[in-house]
Fold each of these.
Amino acid sequence: MLDVHGLRKVYEGSGRRTEAVRDLTFSVEAGELVCLVGPSGCGKTTLLKCVGGLLAPTAGEVRLAGRRVEGPPPGMAFVFQEYGRSLFPWMRVGQNVELPLKQKKLGRERRRELVADALESVGLADAAGAYPWQLSGGMQQRVAIARALAYEPEVLLMDEPFAAVDAQTRADLEDLVRRLWRERGITILFVTHDIDEAVYLGERVIVLSASPTVVQEQLKVDLPAERDQVHTRVSPRFAELRTRVYEQIQAAKRGGAGKAVQ
Ligand code: ADP
Ligand code: MG
């Protein structure tokens, strides 16, 4: 579904050069939920922007269903970290969710159905008439997720979407993402700096090195599909997986390939 090949991104401007991403190659199958984890500043946002066609790579390419991404492709939706800035404060929740659908040339009835269904899916069926600033941070991020869902994307890109909410809200939102993924069969690429979150959410974890970024390791998460915050996180396998990711990230910081632990 998604192929990233030899992706490199160098920022240039005012005499400075930053090689944010050195050489990234990985793919994501249709219907997969893949987490990318790496330290802050390692180029995760840069990578997602290139994948989403918001930023042109310096070298390499991104393909969505075989077609080269050269601008925001119609089948992709984004959920960003800064929910506060991603919703329009002067529009009601329902209007925010409906906005991207207007590009899709759908009839008014169909748009209404999609908006109602998406809000229902994220547990905000009653909030359509509210303004975003009347909602808590966690609820605002639910609205952003509903907006992405209503758009019916093939691929959903999420950039540290829960980094700014409290722990309980975050746990609920993680479970929401897994539920939506299972119900809707969307392909999800989820970026986080949080190792536990990556292991809890992902079917596969791609570990990124520090900037300039390369893929350090890919790890299949063989936890059961049915996960829950209490039992999954204390299971021995969860502990093994998180330890392994942690060691890979430490190894990446030292610049070595790291010794894999079984
Ligand atoms: P992450 O999301 O993993 O924290 P980013 O992709 O935001 O990392 O940034 C990766 C590197 O690229 C950092 O060193 C950052 O300072 C640099 N960078 C990000 N955006 C720009 C930009 N627009 N211009 C120059 N450098 C940038
Ligand atoms: Mg970032």
Amino acid sequence: MALREIRVDSDPILRKKSREVSEVTDRIKLLVEDMIETMYEADGVGLAAPQIGILKRICVIDIYDETGVKVLINPVIVDQKGEYLDTEGCLSIPGVSGYVERPAYTKVKAMNLEGEEFFLEGEGLMSRAICHELDHLDGVLFTDKVIETDDLDETDEVNEVGE
Ligand code: NI
């Protein structure tokens, strides 16, 4: 496993649309391992492949609950309900956070590392993390959706979604 460099700010790769993964090869498995390691090293809740310069539809999420890390390959949203407003940040936009409205519930269909289809659903932070990471696969950043910038001071608690 190896740490990968996280692309930040105006890096044009963050604005590109990622391509579907046709097959889960050993190379893809290695990439996913690196993504997980890189996410943990950066204390992130999620990481999408374009954030490390790879335009493939892959993201990893861990909201640090009891269910462990999620690997989503070619994820597609199949259901969403409700909405809620909370703060977000992104490892690719260091030092910035803001309020973004996201669905309160999201269900996605994706492929796992065995190449099998599965469903992942989540509420609250998990729903937010899924939406944030899937946006990265289409070149969309949370700052595109910010309703109100959160003026951070040292005492603020921030959900570091996507970091
Ligand atoms: Ni992000």
Amino acid sequence: MKGLKGKTALVTGATSGIGQAIAIRLAEEGCNVAINYRGDPEKAEDTLEQAMKRACDGIEACGVTAFPVQGDVSKESDIVAMVQAVVDKFGSVDILINNAGVQSEVPSHELEADEVDRVLGINLRGSFLCARETIKHLLTQQRSGVIINVSSVHERIPRPRYVTYSMSKFGMQGMTQTLALEYADRGIRVNAIAPGATITPINDAWTEDPEKQAEVESHIPMGRAGTSEEMASAVVFLASDDASYVTGQTLFIDGGLTLYADFQEPWSA
Ligand code: NAI
């Protein structure tokens, strides 16, 4: 992809699932990658190893560096320190991938305020604060940059019993479009991807049970769940200069999930 070589990318929640695939793919495209992890440095080392192998296998002077950076995105002080650490290490943050996210299932009438704060604090407030810190650096350095938010089909499809998740992802759409408009004339593009059902640890409840997986996949027009690598492909496109005129958009990568699957066959002949 055009324009990625030598850029610096920060990926939040990069030690598993979609974030890990994005970090590895960005390294493969020639980016220096900061791999954010919340708690487990060993997982970050594992991601780092995989990224470096993919980026540098068989290349002597590969020029790509991967860097694990600790930070809990629900804590403002962690985010400020994390973005600063990446700038100190690489001189800039050109690409931010807001990927870290959680979900929880609770009937809405039983939801505690603390749980609302927890999910929104990671998924939405955390993403905003990462974007704010990155934008500050880009403006100070008068650099162009790219922010990509990992949203969800649930920025469009309501999700009963997961209202905090829906609130966070519907909110992410508003954040993507607003920041895109606010900084469009300063060379900062802001976009999102909206994955459908993807095989990652967040979905252990059904990916580890073939019957449940088949049930989930029966609702998807393409008949299968997506992979983290398929999500990463879209992210590198949006991060690259091949998408240089794209801003404020959400790219749905969902095997047709948002296409009103009930209309696949006529309702009456
Ligand atoms: P995952 O559970 O493997 O990844 C989530 C990552 O976020 C983990 O690495 C976790 O450690 C990190 N994280 C959680 N809280 C954090 C915090 N406070 N600070 C820093 N990192 C934190 O699951 P997956 O699927 O890879 O999720 C990545 C993103 O993709 C999430 O935003 C999720 O909402 C989104 N997504 C996933 C879909 C799926 O079907 N797997 C569908 C649509 C969206």
